[in-house]
Amino acid sequence: MEKKVLTEIAIYYGKVKRPKGHEVNNHEIKADILEAQLQNKLVSDSPFSYRFFDYKLNYSPNMGYVNEHISEYMNVKHNIVLQPELSFGNILQYREQSFSRRCLEMNDLINEPTHIMVYGVDIQPESAQIVIEYDDNKAKDKTWFYELKTNEYVVFPTSCRYFLAGNTSKEPNFFLTTTFKEI
Description:
By secondary structure, the chain is an alpha+beta fold. It is 17% helix and 34% strand. The strands form two sheets. Strands 1-7-4-9-3-2 form a six-stranded antiparallel sheet, covered by helices on one side. Strands 6-5-8 form a three-stranded antiparallel sheet, with no helix packed on it. Strand 5 and strand 6 form a beta hairpin. The longest helix is centred in the middle third of the chain and has 18 residues. The protein starts with 11 loop residues before the first strand and ends with a strand.
């Protein structure tokens, strides 16, 4: 008997580790997110869009370090070449959670990103979870929970729905999200 895998939903997660003296400066990424919020630099201007609370970020060296780490890791360890596309930040206050959504426009799949990365910029201890929703053949509406911490990331296909669960800390949590396209 032979086996052929037709499809796979792979989730990659870990911690961004940089050499001593070259660590990611999360304070600068956090400042970039706050500046985008103050300048009202939204990914979408429509209050009916799930991207209404996503703050569009310009390139910065520290954000580039995170995206580069993900791209290089995926290429070396999994032979997947990813190119960063859109980066945005989110701030979740006490008891706030994000919308359940996909970062994928179903009517333009050829031009859409293939992967999404959520990175913990400044997460209060034991206060943030990412929830990824997926189907496993006939087992529908399955979920995978991951407690996200500062400097940790999760990468998954843009076809999966996800949300950031409610912030259980009295302090805000900051997230960097980048979409990638496989090339």
